[in-house]
Amino acid sequence: MLQPGETIGILGGGQLGRMMALAAAKLGLKTHIYCPDANSPAFDVTPYKTVADYEDEAALEAFAQTVSVVTYEFENIPALAVEFLKARLPVLPNDNVLKVSQDRLTEKNFFHSIGIPTAGFEAVDSQEDLVKATENLGLPALLKTRRFGYDGKGQKFLRAPEDLHNAFAEIGNQPAILEAFVPFEREISVIAARNAQGQVISYDIAENVHENQILKTTTVPAAISETIAHQARQIGEKVASELDYVGVLAVELFLLPDSFDQRLVANEMAPRVHNSGHWTEAACLISQFEQHIRAVAGWPLGTSQRHSDVVMTNLIGNDINDRQIFLESGKTAYHSYGKGETRDGRKMGHINVLSPKSQV
Ligand code: AMP
Prior knowledge:
Blueprint: E1 7-11, H1 15-26, E2 30-34, E3 48-50, H2 57-66, E4 69-72, H3 79-86, H4 95-101, H5 104-113, E5 121-124, H6 127-137, E6 141-145, E7 155-158, H7 167-170, E8 176-180, E9 186-194, E10 200-202, E11 206-211, E12 214-220, H8 226-242, E13 247-255, E14 264-270, H9 280-283, H10 288-296, E15 308-316, H11 323-328, E16 332-336, E17 347-356
Parallel strand pairs: 1-2, 1-4, 2-3
Antiparallel strand pairs: 5-8, 6-7, 6-8, 9-10, 9-11, 9-13, 11-12, 12-15, 13-14, 15-17, 16-17
Adenosine monophosphate is lined by residues 119, 142, 149, 152, 179, 181-182, 187, 210, 213, 252, 267-268.
């Protein structure tokens, strides 16, 4: 259990690291951010920083000397960094979690191993595999690289047989999976947290809308039945328990229409605080960021109770230029990540708009 004034090391200096550092500061804990990019937004909120490559052993050693525990804001951390650090101090969530979530095939197999349904899928290591997989799964389908895909990157949508032509080359001739297309009614997500003592909590289920494959809005409560909401929370909590997880995680789920027997299927998990949990910052007593810090510090988790209905909207690219409107609106909480350069598709901040809690 960390004592006030101790330091949490965070790998990654993006907005998630920044918001974790802010939450830690609120609890009287320090953070040391490690990130190769000197312009990282998280560096603005803590004086303790390392700008170095993730495979720089001297920098990792010096970092390890200054922190009591290490956590991370992204899942694609090079294995060397994790191996190096875990030989010296706790890295939370544990490295098995990273192995599961870095690879779409391993992740899907994990979901199945604990009884959580997914879309049909097959491993694809060549153009010939792809042709075979489409014969088994049918079209439409999505070809996705096993590693390093996010916000729709490394993916190709295959609608008709002619789309297969050259498709494996188009995603970079990398190990991939083919996933059956899921005709979902809604996309929802569950944010769960677990601490080392085995205490598990989950937040109310969020409904997500994507634009150009980037999250645009999250609405809570989701327009789903209590039964589905309960099942979704169970999924998040089960994943956390089965992985001996410490920290916050997200599981993205597809909700299928009523006519399907199986209504919830898992899309993917993120072993970290998640964009679809930013609403907790304004609509809950304890945010996902604070929950994560409490867990990795070995502290008791807080309540996940929500006091308001909420819509979170990501400010992407030039959306951030409307700040005056958000600041003048009496019911909008504006959050900027302080990024210097505005680029199309770049997450620059978010707003949360609250309304009184509905009875749902
Ligand atoms: P992912 O990177 O796997 O989260 O995919 C990005 C987005 O593509 C998801 O949020 C969905 O909107 C869509 N998508 C991904 N996989 C499927 C699927 N199997 N069926 C239908 N839509 C999908």
